[in-house]
Amino acid sequence: MDARNGAVSGDAATLWPRVAEGLRRDLGARTFDHWLKPVRFADYCTLSGVVTLETQSRFSANWINERFGDRLELAWRQHLPAVRGVTVRGGAAAAARAETLATQPLPAFEAPPPAAANPALLGFDPRLSFDRFVVARSNILAANAARRMAMVETPQFNPLYLCSGTGQGKTHLLQAIAQDYAAAHPTATIILMSAEKFMLEFVGAMRGGDMMAFKARLRAADLLLLDDLQFVIGKNSTQEELLHTIDDLMTAGKRLVVTADRPPAMLDGVEARLLSRLSGGLVADIEAPEDDLRERIIRQRLAAMPMVEVPDPVVAYLVKHFTRNIRELEGALNKLLAYAALTGTVIDLALAEDRLAENVRSARPRITIDEIQRAVCAHYRLDKAEMASKRRVRAIARPRQVAMYLAKELTPRSYPEIGRRFGGRDHSTVIHAVRTVEALRVHDSELDAEIAAIRRSLNG
Questions:
Q1: C-alpha to C-alpha distance for 445 and 376, rounded to whole angstroms
Q2: Per-residue pLDDT tens digits for 70-85
Q3: What is the DSSP letter of 304?
């Protein structure tokens, strides 16, 4: 450390306990105690604006830099705005530092964080813990069921099926289950993967003649967590292997947690036997976050940033406009905080309205295929069942084509997905409907006006 920086570095050293306390509130006691409690302040350079922290384990230092680097930097800036970076060093570097500070020796060696003893935890994010999952009416069933799944005691319901739209906390709960289960079962084998990765690995193993190893790895899991099951829809061979995997795990008393964007009964294109297995435990729905939950999430984040002032009107603005999911809400808050921190601007309602205008437009509720079908049927005075029927009379076929066209225009669903929602029709049928309506709109002003009216009703 440069002697010229001694006083400043000394002042920075006195801030570390306050920074650490804020991190403990933000990250949760369990995560903080596992990873950041052994960390000590080492140095602060005014020339580079870099704070150096130390921990005894090189492994822990690498993990903290990777997982908490940005969070550490933001926490330091709240107390010392001149900070431009934070780095954590460990192992030999920390030992060498201790030798040069004979008058200020580092504390006695502290054992590595308990979570590090379990290799299964290396793929998980310590920030996604139960401590940081805010519980309210909309998610209490899923949250409590997830905690039960992670306990030492055998869960009452197995498998656990979590369903919700994107950004509502399903993946957060998967990560929390894995970390708590690992803490309670230090030698457990835990596998968390997306259903898409399951499918890709299955296909790769099948093509490479390595199916035995693939099967053995999955069946060795004490806890298997599969995210976004909807991505195996229509993949018959993958579903068959997943079914066998579930059967073997259940028979062996292992634990299974699955997430999807809809309940099992609405997973079109999934084999009935697989749906039966998935529905055999507990299906826990996470609903859209209510106003109280959204506000509490914002307050939780801000409580860990005592130097940041966000007035109540700005909190109310965020709660009002970001209603669809938690991910969008946190993204909007992060954008506002980052802009204020990097430009030195005071956060107020005018700033929020200016900087988040595009986010607000993007956060408006998306239209679903079901809503499109209902709107089309209401316009043409048809029964909704006709959208999936086989009848081809013009009075029904044309509205059905209009609904398919709007489904492709207004939703992110693929042609095969749209076809399945219209009575299991082939993707080529949907393509034909879309092209037909596109061509007709050019010459048929009446049809064009009808479609415009339906769109207005959906947006209204």
A1: 17
A2: 788 878 888 888 888 8
A3: T
**Structure confidence by residue, pLDDT tens digits, 291-338:** 999 999 999 888 877 778 899 999 999 999 888 888 889 889 989 988
The answer to whether 373 and 386 are in contact (CB under 8 A) is no
What are 88's strand-pairing partners? Answer: 53
Beta bridge partners of 259: 162
Give the start-end residues of each E strand in 108-215: 160-163, 190-194
Question: For the structural domain made of 291-362, what CATH number should be given?
Answer: 1.10.8.60
Considering the domain 3-113, what is its CATH architecture?
A: 2-Layer Sandwich (3.30)
pLDDT digits (tens, 9 = 90+) for 161-184: 999 888 889 999 999 999 999 988
For the domain 121-285, what is the CATH code?
A: 3.40.50.300
CATH of 369-459, one of 3.40.50.300, 3.90.470.20, 2.40.128.50, 1.10.1750.10: 1.10.1750.10
Classify burial at 64, counting beta carbons within 10 Å of its beta carbon; exposed 0-12, middle 13-18, buried 19 or more: buried
